[in-house]
Amino acid sequence: MKRLILSMALLLSLASCDEALDRLPNDSLTSETAYRSVSDLQLGLNGVMISYSTLNTITVNSILTDEVKIGLDNGGQQVSLYNMILDPQEGNSAGIWNSRYVAINRANRIIAAAAGISPAANEVNQYNNILAQCYFIRALSHLDLMNHYSPNTMDLTGIAVPYIDFVNTSTQLPRNTVAEVRDGILASLQLADDFLPASSSDIYFATTKAIEFTRAKVKFLTGDYTGALVHADNLILGQNGFTATPLANATQYVNMFADTDNTEIIFKRRRTQLEGFIGGVWYFTGTGGAFLEMSNKVYNNLPGDVRDGVLFDAVGSAAQGGPANNFHLINKYPGSSGFLFLNDEKVMRMSELVLIKAECHARLSQWTDAADAVKAIRDARSGASTPVDVYANLQQAANAILAERFVELAYEGHRYVDIKRLRNVTNVGIVRDPADCGGAAPCELGVSDRRFTLPIPQAEMDTNANMLQNDDY
Amino acid sequence: MRSKFKWIFTLLVAFTMQFSFAQQKTVTGVVSDAMGPLAGANVVVKGTTNGTTTDFDGNYTIQAKQGDVLEVTYTGMKKATVTVGASNVVNVTMQEDILTGNEVVVVAYGAEKKSNVTSAVSVVKAESIEQVPIASLDQVLQGNVAGLQMAVGSGQPGQSGTIRIRGTSTINGNGEPLFIIDGVPVDEDNFRSLNSNDIENVSVLKDASAAALYGSRGASGVVIVTTKKGKFNSGLKVQYRALYGVSLMPEAQFEVMNTRQYLTWQRDVLGSGYGATGTSGSVTGTGPLSDAEINAIAGFANTNWADIFFREGTTKSHEINLSTGSEKARSYTSIGYFEQEGITQRSDLKRFTFRTNYDAKPTEKFHYGYNLTFNYSTNNFTIDRARGVTTGGDLDNPFIVPYIGMPYQSPYNPDGSLNLIGTQLSGAYGTNPDGTQGAYNISNANGFQNTPYLALNTNAFNQDLEEEIKAVAQLNADYEIIKNVKVGGAFGLDYTNITSTSITDPRSIRGGITPSQTSVLKGSQFEGFYRDANFNINSFVTYANTFKEKHDLEISAFTEYYYNNIQNSGFEAYGLNPALLGSGAAFVDPSVLEAGAAPYAPFLSSTESELGLFSYFGVAKYDYDNRYGIQLSARRDASSRFLDENRWGTFFSVSGKWNIHNEKFLENVESIDELKLRASYGSVGNQGVGGFYVGYETVGSGNGYNGQQAYFPAVADKNLKWETTTQLNVGVDFGLFDRLTGSVDVYDKNTTDLFLATQIPFTTGFGSVTKNIGEMSNKGIELTLSYDVVKTDDWKVNINGNAAYNKNEITQLDGLSDFQGTGSTRLTVGEQFGSYSLVRWAGVDPANGQPLYLDANGNITNVYNLAANRVNTGKSFIPKYTGGFGANISYKNLSLSSLFVFAAEQYRINSSFGILEDNGLAGFANQSVTVLNQWQNPGDVSAIPGVNYTGIRTRLDTRYLEDASYLRLRNVTLAYTLDGQKLNKAISSVRFYLQAQNMLTWTKYRGFDPESNQASNFFDYPTPRQFTFGLDINL
User: Fold this and answer.
1) Burial level of B363, CB count in 10 A (0-12/13-18/19+)?
2) In the prediction, which pLDDT does B866 show?
3) Which 3 state secondary structure label does DSSP give B563?
4) DSSP 8-state assignment for residue A386
5) Is A436 a member of any domain?
6) What is the distance between the alpha carbons of residues B397 and B154, in angstroms, rounded to a whole number?
7) Which residues on A lie below 8 Å from B701 (Cβ)?
8) Closest CA to B900 of B1023, B823, B997, B994
9) Is residue A304 situated within a structural domain?
10) Helices in B428-513 by DSSP H: which ranges?
11) What local confidence, expressed as pLDDT, does residue A1 receive?
């Protein structure tokens, strides 16, 4: 019997292993323990900021439109998007939705975590800055979403996207109206403004100017042109407590795209070599081969000023026969810090704001003001006084503004939403140069095509019963 | 000899019988088997209790009368009966028992007589495993076990395959069986360092009852590998074995264009590329090539790139093993060297293996032993999709070149050596105005047109090496602490240490753009350190007794703790001095700045993860008179993957058997040697999902904004728990006419609480979270047969085979929308797992050459609309029918054996072939000859659209969903055994053999290899054909 007890004891000797089963992660924290101090929140903010990127909006706005053509080195890369195959499964457009909601979720999580932390006196500035940045990213992300997924941002009662200002873990949220999203964005911007320490001037983060820029843009997109003009002029003219930010001169302009000049930058999204290079939208960044090239349409519309060299890589193109051989390389992201194709994302720069100003004036039938704003851009880029346009109606003004945006903001993520916004004024959809299309690649996208609004991703439709798909998808 | 003796002896008995008297006398003799005398055999006079056992030398002495029948029994041998004749000496030779179920089968935590086994277990013996020139044990099992499907995704030497037993019973969980080697659970995905020749047998546990004792990890079946042991009371045996052979490329089931076809087609149909413009690489043409020019080019180069990239790889193997046994101890030791080259450059495996097994029973009550294998292997890799670091589409993947390499490019330099850089035509060099070769262009050298040279260059210069130390060790002991009660325990270790070195040579084409094209110094070196240590400790108490001779009872209780620790660290340094390649001395100081940045900043990593499993379980077995048997088991398991109360799972099983052949009513039915009915029902758990911390809502750290450290949240379902598979199995084992043996099993398996990476709305910030969702069922039937067609002393002909049918179905998804997933395959309620959901391809419109599809209603449309028109095809990449069959024919010492394997009703998307018909790539990629018949003019009837319809190969349609069913002559062996005595007294036998592996394959699949464990092919490393010569010398 003794032996039996002994053997049972031996058997049970291993039974007290429960603590051996508590294997907490070694390489990560858990949500219960991660945020305990302001410096933890700062690490969280670094995760919020990196999740906001315009790379996917640049991709869709560039490839779906008339900015590019299939490159000599294309092995199938992005051909489907170039062929305007846009459905709820399309990955690039789904990426815009997904990544913006990742940014929103992360921002909301840090905002929620911050509520449980009381900063010491010497941490208050940092703490407030973290909150301000989170609110700013939340606002900006919703703005991008609305711009791409709302059928019409000028229809205030029309559908936009879910506006989320809390940590949503499982709720199946419906789409809010344009007005609701606009109000949400403005509220987030106000919170960002309130928390932002007075000294903030780092263009790689939210500043009062970046907040003001965003206000101008959200009001502009939602049809409040008068309101938008106030915010735009605050930065253009330097009023209401703001200093004026000028447009870059020719040298500054070239340097801006090499990331060595920030004269007209309001907000830049920093990219380091630890991330994918921005030039990777069009190039194999390792080998330098271009699977997408500048379209003949852009090439044929080069404005004859400093922008020509910024847009078009004449030297690189010549190596393969250049334009004569239908070979056009994009030069907007020439690289920096010794890395080809590594550049920051110029999310907000003054020329866009000046062109927003032009369009606001045009929408308000203020033709001269609109023409002056367009002239301001051309003057800065050519370094000389250019003739002023004369517009007799909105269509003329819209055509001129759209053409200016085409060469000023090419490859910066604007083209698709610009055409979308103005197509009912210009009565023109996407029209590619005949040399850029044919076969499976459409030469046109009609004004009323469903594809001027991105489809809600299939994964969202499958999992969110309250989600409404855009028309005709 | 023996049978002759027996015959004479029987005759003798018959003659003497009638003249003898019933008189008690002393009978002596020796009991032996083929290997020699048997110690401990029981000798009983039939119908009495008068019995004895043989001594150490197999001798026995017993009192018997003439006419008495002696019954001799010994575990694993057929019962021998001999009638005592006039002689006082009765020698008995016993035959190994294969037919009547006294065979010993290795089962969970022990071995059992085959007749006592109550569950579905298949056994593969050493003969099917030994000396096969395949370095990964799991691959060798293909075709040998009914219901075990093995597919491998690469022909790299040492590559591990994917095994599915009775279909797939999990979605995102680990669906491979648990591998146990000598009691130690080991990594099921890495066998390259283990010597298959050491294996005595492999038991495959297929049903719930068999696997129940491995309940925490046995949901997808269990494969128990038992290595060789010495034999007690045997002398020293020494064996030397050698193999030498070659591996060859498989036959391509597709054809690409030759130079003339390609250039003419480019000129006349495509309207672009070299043929149409005269421009290729840096050579600028003046317009379409003339026929004469094309002829001249074709005369200069008409390259079949498959010939350049595939080589004859050699295999060499040497092994010496020793086994010995005394009365109280036995041991087996082997040492081996194996070397195998793959069928393309820089793909190889070399390994040293060492094993020693030792068993001792110093007293009647105490037994202990150990098994130890310690191995070292080096594995060189080429670019291989199965490595996971490439999609297959990399231009330096050697397996892309036979498809897309342009035939007009010559592989050779003018001096006849292989061109490792490229040409003007491929763009690697510029062209001077006078047409002579210009400067090297690093960007174009990395471009599409330079693909063949880039692949040759990477193979020649760069390195991807893994060096592995693998040890599996087990120490076990048991002690009969009181009569009929044993206590014991075992400690097991599976230790794997992999050191990886990947070097991108600064002088290579890839090196020229590493770390970047603009950096002054080039190249990179990655070194990784990976350590995977698994510890397994169990202890047990067993009570076993036999009551009234007929009631066998055994009750055991176990506890087990398993701990797995994985450490992984590495660095990648950039900027190397080519003179000191491979050494840290080659590294440039990483803080060097160029243009304000640090291009040589190294990449560093270090991670550690841990898993703990704890279990306690019990099993009770009862057997009545070797007729009825029942086994019950129950267990509780905990996994550190799950939180709190979800940590524990409870599983049980019950099984029974009825040996009908032992019933009285069959006693006189000579034709039935064995007839056994088995049934089992039970549940087994699966916790193998995601990372080790899948239940925790983690906040990870990584590179954040502006290169700063950052935190990243993750989501988890904190209610995640065990996935449970419940299985009912009914089987029959039979042996008839002393010739036909076999078994039939039917099963019904149902998995609940499936692990599923469930999609959640992205508005939550996350795309999916692993949850327990839904149910899946697998139903099937398995048949195994073996028939001795001829059984004479000289001739033996045996045919055998196995086949399995499995029907998988997803039975529900817990109210999720009725399909999940956006790729080519979808989970759909009512459909099988891995079922392709695609738009149906409807060919080409003869009027305009555009592609046509069927819409959801089956109407023809020219619009490809995935969301609206995808339908379930009912086709899956997992085969419904699998099996193997073959014949073993021997005449005297000559034998021929064969094994055919097949997989039917299996489909795969042939993305590799799709490239060959995508005219959008035809400017730099060769095309299939089928393109020559593509649509060109209205009215043309063709399967291939007109040249304008490019880029449509990636659409999720059925165009490239191909039937990947196959029949393959997996192995054929011709062997001759020579009586060694004729050569030298010291040699007992010599065996020579010739083997062919994968010699013939029948398939419709348009590629190199229909076999794969992937849902699509993209320039995968195909399985080679192998021819080997082998030699065994037994001393």
Assistant:
1) exposed
2) 84
3) strand
4) -
5) no
6) 13
7) 27-29, 43
8) B997
9) yes
10) 442-445, 451-461
11) 52
- If we measure between CA atoms, which residue out of B849, B842, B838 comes closest to residue B949? B849
Residue type, B837: S
State the burial class of residue B602 (Cβ atoms within 10 Å of its Cβ: 0-12, 13-18, 19+): middle
pTM: 0.83
Binary contact (B485, A80; C-beta < 8 A): no
Give the helix/strand (H/E) hosting B1009.
none
Report d(CA A34, CA A169) in Å as an integer: 18
Assess whether pLDDT exceeds 90 at residue B348.
Answer: yes
CA distance B101 to chain A (A): 33
* Cβ contact B281:B424 at 8 Å: yes
Q: Mean pLDDT of all residues in chain A?
A: 93
Is there a contact between B711 and A105 if contact means CB atoms under 8 Å apart?
A: no
DSSP 8-state class, residue A177: B
Does residue A379 surpass a pLDDT of 90?
Answer: yes
Contacts of B487 in chain A (CB under 8 A): 7, 10-11
Terminal Cα-to-Cα distance of chain B (whole angstroms): 21
Token pair belonging to B28: 């002596």
Chain B residue nearest residue A472, CA to CA: B868
CB contact under 8 A, A76 and B918: yes
Q: Residue B653 carries which side chain, given as an amino acid letter?
A: S
Beta bridge partners, B725, equal B684, B751
ipTM field: 0.91
Do residues B932 and B922 touch, judged by C-beta distance below 8 A? no
The parent domain of residue A293 ranges over: 271-325
3-state secondary structure of A236: helix
Residue of chain B whose alpha carbon sits nearest to that of A98: B762
For residue B238, pLDDT over 60 is answered with yes
C-alpha–C-alpha distance, residues B498 and B375, integer Å: 12
Residue whose token pair is 């101008």: A216
Quick one: CA torsion of A348, A351, A356, A359, rounded to 10 degrees? Answer: -160
Question: How do the domains of chain B map onto residue ranges?
Answer: 2-93, 104-237
Q: Which of B517, B864, B949 sits opposite A439 (nearest CB)?
A: B949
Q: Is residue A456 part of a domain?
A: no
Give me the helix-helix angle, A367-382 and A250-257, nearest 10°: 80
Does B666 score more than 90 pLDDT? Answer: no
Of B682, B754, B761, which is closest to residue B720 (Cα–Cα)? B754
Coil vs helix vs strand at A119: coil
Whether the Cβ atoms of residue B107 and residue B117 lie closer than 8 Å to each other? yes
3-state SS, residue B171: coil
Digit-coded pLDDT (tens) for B60-114: 888 888 888 888 888 767 778 788 888 888 888 777 654 444 566 777 777 777 7
Closest CA to A308 of A351, A262, A254: A254
On the question of pLDDT at A8 being above 70, the answer is no
- A258 CA: distance to closest CA in chain B (Å): 12
Q: Is residue A187 part of a domain?
A: no
CATH topology of domain B2-93: Immunoglobulin-like (2.60.40)
Question: Is residue B885 packed enough to be buried (19+ CB in 10 Å), middle (13-18) or exposed (0-12)?
Answer: middle
Neighbours of B662 (CB within 10 A): 18
Does A14 have pLDDT greater than 60? Answer: no
Q: Domain count for chain A, please give it.
A: 1
Residue B27: per-residue pLDDT:
86
- pLDDT tens digits for A145-163? 999 999 999 999 999 999 9
Residue ranges of E strands in B925-965: 961-963
- More confident position, A117 or A320: A117
pLDDT digits (tens, 9 = 90+) for B382-425: 999 998 888 888 999 999 999 999 999 999 999 999 999 999 99
Q: In one letter, which amino acid is B112?
A: E
Identify the CATH homologous superfamily for domain B104-237.
Answer: TonB-dependent receptor, plug domain (2.170.130.10)
